[in-house]
Structure to design on (696 residues):
């Protein structure tokens, strides 16, 4: 690690401390809720879950440079594996940890099955294959009604059981040991898993495997010449990325107590996750976290609040769709993508290599890399 | 969103007859997909960009056609009940809507894609997704979130006579009578004119084309204009044929059309037509024999299989990445 990044941890620890303290200090959120009609703590929980999903996508797209447009399918697969393994309608009824492990492994395995024949395809064809796979998954989840309950989704997904040892510290923190009464159990569960994933990725990033991913992204031919087994390295990125998406899916289904319908895992979800990592900075863990925080926060928190404000202020008594803020969301996402690509393609917190590549400030004659593409 | 295939009405008493009827429906639908697919394939052939916004240009085209039909009746007193007026009206739509879509497509290229020509490939692709979102939002604000009914102007009378074993309506005939000449004209245009030659040259090697004195930017603009015009024509026919339009139809139909383009070999003009027909057939036969709800999944399974086993598509030849 460079000295610069050694100085940074205190800032990150500060954010972490705020996130850890928030639910303890602001609880119950009644006053805030009256103002916004949204439970910020609950939305933060979903942001943590989407952050795990985005970090998974970042491994594939950001680190390894494989454009994956179907990550939502693996998110959905994780959710449905959890649903099948836990809902009372099925005989398995496993506990949360077993479901989490199997969802992660199942999604990773499917990622490998999809990746093995397709990863040799060139960039944009791979994008289309993953997109197609995403759509096939969604239609399959919808059509196999005997297994997935069609558009209704599987429910109720039971809450994890708390270890007995947890009751005393929970009581001490003033947290109700009942998942349906107190959102904070899910909050800390999601935050804890997110932290684990972040630590895992930050370690992997600088490991032999992490450097191999980046080498493949930068120049597959050169990386292969250096003795990197491109197929295996790409497959490992795919497996890890899809596995993390499955893990996020399990957490999502558990938090929602339902797998939701297949349409929760559509192409739009994949694209929004992609927007998050592009906005934050491809290949950068901190950038991904920032991107998720900004975009999902905007989508789930800011937009509904603005909608509520517009409605409350009586600006729009006739219900004109032009004055409903949510009707402009696609436009805002779209413009954000276009403007980012035009003016700051490396993202808000770019990784060092991506920044150099996107701004073409590399040693050697200018313009050559642009031609090489 | 997904265009209904009208196969429910097919008489299933005789095996062969049923099959032929499905095939006929599939080929008619396929001709429509082919028109949209041509826009994808031409743009990809020249600048190697999957233009995600293409389907949404198509969607806005059909919204414009819908608005024009209403406006013509309201302000010009156009009588959409009389056959001659219908014919003339559709002719007018087939001029105005393609012009609009061409202008829109060229504007998008100039404003969004052109500054990114030398950027890494991911940048224009992501921008195209962004443009698609913006256009979809325009459609949402213009037409609302619900499906819109598109006037059913063309008769469903069978051309082959009511007693014939197969049903081929005036509506089906309209699709074929408009799409086939357009495709022939396009092929001749690309094969014989100077601009067509310039397009082929640019697709082969932009740098060499530029060195030969071809104005590559103009060629790219012309390609976007042509692709947009084809999407516009397809939008009018789609509205008249399917009679339902919605702001989300661009995404779904765009994916089918893109699948058609890839299936035929992306960048290859006859390939896009062939791919469109195959996709149309797959959808109608799939609806008939497998079940309507599985058709979309079937199309994407075909897409994945083609990409895995024959990435160059049915007619394509370019397989290698330019290193």
């Amino acid at each position: 690690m460079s000295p610069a990044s050694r100085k940074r941890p205190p800032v990150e620890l500060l954010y972490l401390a705020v996130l850890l303290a928030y639910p303890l200090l602001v609880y119950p959120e009644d006053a805030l809720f009256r103002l916004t009609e949204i439970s910020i703590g609950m939305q933060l929980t979903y942001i943590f879950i989407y952050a795990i999903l985005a970090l998974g996508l970042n491994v594939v797209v950001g680190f390894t440079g494989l454009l994956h447009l179907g990550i939502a399918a693996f998110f959905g697969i994780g959710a449905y594996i959890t649903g099948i393994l836990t809902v009372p309608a099925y005989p398995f009824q496993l506990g949360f940890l077993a479901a989490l492990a199997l969802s992660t492994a199942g999604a990773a395995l499917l990622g490998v099955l999809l990746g093995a024949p397709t990863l040799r395809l060139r960039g944009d064809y791979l994008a289309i294959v993953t997109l197609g796979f995403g759509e096939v998954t969604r239609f399959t989840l919808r059509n196999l009604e005997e297994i997935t309950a069609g558009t209704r989704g599987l429910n109720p997904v039971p809450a994890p059981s708390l270890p007995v040892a947890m009751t005393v510290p929970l009581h001490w923190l003033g947290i109700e040991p009942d998942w349906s009464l107190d959102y904070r159990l899910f909050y800390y569960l999601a935050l804890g898993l997110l932290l684990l994933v972040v630590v895992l990725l930050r370690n992997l990033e600088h490991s032999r495997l992490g450097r191999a991913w980046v080498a493949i992204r930068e120049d597959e031919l050169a990386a292969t010449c250096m003795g990197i087994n491109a197929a295996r390295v790409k497959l490992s990125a795919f497996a890890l990325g899809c596995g993390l998406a499955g893990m996020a899916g399990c957490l999502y289904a558990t938090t929602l107590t339902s797998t939701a319908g297949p349409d929760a895992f559509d192409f739009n979800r994949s694209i929004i996750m992609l927007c998050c990592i592009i906005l934050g900075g491809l290949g950068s863990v901190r950038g991904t976290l920032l991107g998720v925080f900004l975009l999902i926060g905007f989508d789930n928190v800011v937009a509904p609040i603005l909608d509520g404000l517009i409605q409350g202020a009586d600006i729009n008594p006739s219900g004109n769709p032009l004055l409903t803020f949510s009707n402009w969301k696609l436009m805002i996402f779209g413009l954000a993508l276009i403007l980012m690509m035009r003016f700051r393609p490396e993202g808000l917190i770019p990784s060092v290599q991506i920044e150099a590549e996107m701004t073409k400030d590399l040693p050697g004659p200018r313009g050559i890399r642009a031609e090489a593409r | 969103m997904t265009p209904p295939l009208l196969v429910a009405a097919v008489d299933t008493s005789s095996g062969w007859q049923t099959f032929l009827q499905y095939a006929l429906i599939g080929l008619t639908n396929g001709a429509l997909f082919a028109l949209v697919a041509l826009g994808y394939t031409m743009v990809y052939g020249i600048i190697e960009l999957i233009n995600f916004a293409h389907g949404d240009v198509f969607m806005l085209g059909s919204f414009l056609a819908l608005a024009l039909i209403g406006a013509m009746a309201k302000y010009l007193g156009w009588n959409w009940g009389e056959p001659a007026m219908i014919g003339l009206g559709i002719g007018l739509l087939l001029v105005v809507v393609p012009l609009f879509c061409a202008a829109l497509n060229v504007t998008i290229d100039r404003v969004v894609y052109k500054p990114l020509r030398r950027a890494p490939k991911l940048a224009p692709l992501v921008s195209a997704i962004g443009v698609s979102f913006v256009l979809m939002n325009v459609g949402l604000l213009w037409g609302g979130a619900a499906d819109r009914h598109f006037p059913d102007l063309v008769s469903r009378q069978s051309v082959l006579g009511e007693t014939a074993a197969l049903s081929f309506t005036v509506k089906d005939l309209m699709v074929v009578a408009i799409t086939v000449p357009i495709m022939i004209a396009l092929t001749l245009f690309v094969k014989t004119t100077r601009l067509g030659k310039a397009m082929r040259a640019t697709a082969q090697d932009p740098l060499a084309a530029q060195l030969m004195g071809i104005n590559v930017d103009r060629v790219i603009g012309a390609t976007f204009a042509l692709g947009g015009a084809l999407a516009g024509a397809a939008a009018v026919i789609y509205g008249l044929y399917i009679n339902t339009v919605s702001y989300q139809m661009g995404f779904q139909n765009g994916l089918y059309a893109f699948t058609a383009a890839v299936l035929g070999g992306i960048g290859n003009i006859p390939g896009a037509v062939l791919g469109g027909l195959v996709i149309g057939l797959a959808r109608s036969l799939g609806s008939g024999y497998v079940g309507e709800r599985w058709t979309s999944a079937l199309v994407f399974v075909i897409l994945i299989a083609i990409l895995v086993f024959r990435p160059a598509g049915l007619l394509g030849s370019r397989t290698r990445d330019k290193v």
Observations:
- Chain B touches chain A through 46 residues (CB under 8 Å).
